[in-house]
Amino acid sequence: MTRSIRDPSARQRIITAGARAVAAHGVHAASVRVIAAEAGVSTGFITHYFTDKDELMEAVLEATNRQAAARVLRAARRDGTALERLGRAVDVMLPTDPLRRQEWQVWVAAWGEASKGDRLSDGYRAGWTGLRDIFAGLLAEAQRAGELDPAVDIEHRADRLVTLLAGIGLLAGVERPGRVRSAAERMLAEELAWLGELQPAR
Predict the structure, then answer these.
(1) Which tens digit of pLDDT belongs to each residue from 5-29?
(2) Where's the HTH tetR-type domain (predicted)?
């Protein structure tokens, strides 16, 4: 059960420190003690806001998902065709700056735990389901606007984009940032260009 929030900014400070710790050390090594040191507070301070580490990890994942989703939605709502907006929505998920690399490190760490069916699995699935739904919505809009062949399987293409992004996110942990950026931009450009070529049959 979530503790009473006396100071939302303090709670957010803990979550932000938790995200940095998970990105740097993984879920298991990011202990409450490590997170407290990262936040510059005592472990007792953390327990005023979170009943245990599991609750804090869930909050870290939820905050990471929410931050990324807001950025994707901003890109998706800008001017342009549906496919252009889809391209921007995909682009802002690429791990090409420190903040986005940290998000990917958190997701990869959560993925390792989610595969065991623990409490992070729901948050992990929710994040990716939300992203896939945004992509599917833009693809459906492209079909309605005549940008995309009506025969295209929207759900499948949205799944492909999410899966491609997930692979790129894994690369971010082992490759140099410049190389990841170059490979990611090329792969996604090819995928989006293919979609743009699928004009409705006349």
Answers:
(1) 567 899 999 999 999 999 999 999 9
(2) 8-68
Judge whether 22 lies within some domain. Answer: yes
> For 88-92, 101-105, 178-182, 187-191, which range has the lowest pLDDT when averaged over its residues?
178-182
Q: How many residues does the chain have?
A: 202
CATH number (domain holding residue 164): 1.10.357.10
Residue 2 scores a pLDDT above 60 = no
What total number of domains does the chain contain? 1
Establish if 3 belongs to a structural domain: no
- What is the residue range of 41's domain? 8-197
